[in-house]
Amino acid sequence: MELQDNHQDQHDEWLITYHFVWGAMREKPCLTGEVATRLAKLIEERANDVEVAPLAVLVLPDRVYLAVGAAPTLAPHHIICQVKAYTSRILRDEFPELNRIPTLWTRAYLAMAGDTITAEEAFRRFEATLRPRRPRGRPRKASPETCETTCATESRESANAIISDEDGISPNPAVTQRSGRNNRCDNR
Fold first, then answer.
1. CA dihedral in degrees (12, 13, 16, 21; nearest 10)?
2. The domain 12-129 belongs to what CATH superfamily?
3. Each residue of 83-102: pLDDT tens digit?
4. Domain boundary assignment for the chain
5. Residue 18 burial by CB count (10 A; 0-12/13-18/19+): exposed, middle or buried?
6. Do 36 and 131 meet the contact criterion of CB atoms below 8 Å apart?
7. Confidence band, pLDDT 50/70/90 cuts, at residue 135
8. Which of 23-32, 37-46, 100-109 has the largest mean confidence?
9. Strand pairing of 53-59 and 63-70?
10. How far apart are CA 133 and CA 149, in angstroms?
11. φ and ψ at 14, to 5 degrees?
């Protein structure tokens, strides 16, 4: 019996250090002032409820970094989902300005395990996984001057391709594909 108790005590000392990074919806810089302070307290509360030890909490205006020590039997997905759901619900109740965006957190997060990972490295890796943001609004239409310049350049390239073909030199396939009916400026 005593052997099992010793084994269980040793197991309780094993902790994996997880590093999490997640962001606010639409990268909105809404985590400032009182919201950031309250968020840090809520994260510590929920971490204790989930039975993990918060090692570091860093709140930026649009990103959150959390390092926790957790038992090997606790899944990182469970930890982050518990923290994000709890903090989102309470922050949106306490700060009505956070209800302007559809959800407080994005579904994306970064989870890394290791003792030597820094917050800067975790932020860098999280940003590397994000898709580039499209500019807001509709794409701008090409102006007629731009289209005329493009057409003139393409027709010169097409003429060069035809001349080189008559000389017995094989034409450039990229140039010949743009000539003729596929020219986008001919379809005005």
1. 90
2. Transposase IS200-like (3.30.70.1290)
3. 999 999 999 999 999 998 88
4. 12-129, 144-186
5. buried
6. no
7. confident
8. 37-46
9. antiparallel
10. 29
11. -75, 125
